[in-house]
Specification:
By secondary structure, the chain is an alpha/beta fold. It has nine helices and twelve strands. The strands form two sheets. It has a six-stranded parallel β-sheet with strand order 2-1-3-4-5-11, sandwiched between helices. α6 packs across α7. The longest helix has 17 residues. The chain is elongated.
């Protein structure tokens, strides 16, 4: 039997995110809380620290609580877990944020990753770069696949070479994996002259690893981050960012969840936040 959120109305919304007080968590939670409060709801926050076991536990506990709906930021690979299917089968509305589980008829709020990658590649091409690396998770989830396709397509549009070995891909968002793969790339006979990274944290890891290897950013290697987070002043002077707002994403997720609670017959849809390039 599929698990489900209780049918009892409590005016409470569950929010499961990677971190409550770190990274983009505060901005995302602030947006969700604002929209919830404006509509008479309270939120219950749970963090999973980007660990699958904690995410599964948080989802299972949320499904057992008396909640009117749930907003979830998952981790890579969650779509293959039983807990994800139980979440999708729940008889209360669920909104996924950022990571797409790849199922039909879901509610999703995410950045327009195709537009973000296109902006990043066009900026780097305009600077004269020919060898551009994409830094993200291995293309196993829908969002990563969309970014990979957009990256390849934009390279073709600008007559730039596509080298499948010129990718900085890791299984998870991990500092050690990212820096080890970067060292391999930079040691190759034809290393990248520019890197397009997904998330501020990845780009900070890349920046630190490049400087440790003796490279200057942006003089030797240009770095563009697709992010909704702010850098420290030291990093931001050396990077270009394709930006979006996590608070706006939270507001949108809260709005969609409240609307789904009040109008359950409305079909689910995916909503994408447009990014802008900032130099």
């Amino acid at each position: 039997m599929a698990r489900s959120l209780s049918t009892k109305k409590t005016s409470q919304l569950g929010v499961v995110i990677p971190y409550i007080a770190e990274g983009y968590g505060p901005n995302l939670a602030a947006g969700i809380e604002t929209e919830a409060r404006n509509n008479g709801y309270q939120i219950i926050l749970t963090q999973h620290r980007n660990k699958m076991d904690l995410l599964i536990s948080a989802v299972e506990q949320s499904l057992d609580r008396d909640l009117d709906g749930l907003i979830v930021v998952s981790v890579s690979g969650f779509s293959k877990k039983k807990a994800c299917q139980e979440l999708l089968d729940a008889n209360k509305p669920v909104v996924f944020v950022e990571r797409d589980p790849g199922q039909d008829n879901i509610r999703l709020v995410s950045v327009d990753s195709v537009r973000a990658v296109t902006l990043g590649v066009k900026h780097l091409s305009g600077l004269g770069h020919q060898r551009i690396a994409l830094c993200q998770n291995t293309a196993s989830d829908p969002e990563s696949k969309r970014r990979e396709l957009a990256f390849h397509s934009t390279l073709n549009e600008w007559s730039l070479p596509y080298d499948p070995d010129l990718q900085l891909l890791t299984e998870i968002e991990d500092e050690a994996q990212t820096q080890a793969r970067l060292q391999e790339l930079m040691a190759s006979p034809t290393p990248p002259t520019a890197i397009l990274g997904v998330s501020a944290q990845r780009c900070i890891w890349v920046y630190n690893a490049l400087t440790a290897l003796g490279y200057r950013v942006p003089e030797d290697v240009s770095l563009v981050a697709i992010t909704g987070q702010s850098f420290g002043s030291f990093h931001i002077a050396r990077m270009t960012s394709v930006r979006f707002s996590y608070e706006e994403m939270g507001l949108m997720a809260g709005r969609i969840l409240v609307d789904a609670i009040r109008q359950p017959a409305r079909p689910p849809q995916r909503t994408y936040i447009p990014p802008i390039a900032r130099r």
